[in-house]
Amino acid sequence: MELELSQFYRVLAPRTTIIITTINQKGEINAAPFSFTMPVSVNPPLLAVASAPTHHTYQNLQESGEFVVNLPGEEILEQLWITGESFPEGVNELEKAGLTNEDSLIVDAPGIKECVARLECKVVSDRECGDHQLVVGEVVRVDTRDDILVEGLLHVERSKPVLHLGGKDFVVGDHRKRLD
Question: To 5 degrees, how large is the angle CA 117–CA 119–CA 26?
Answer without folding.
Answer: 115
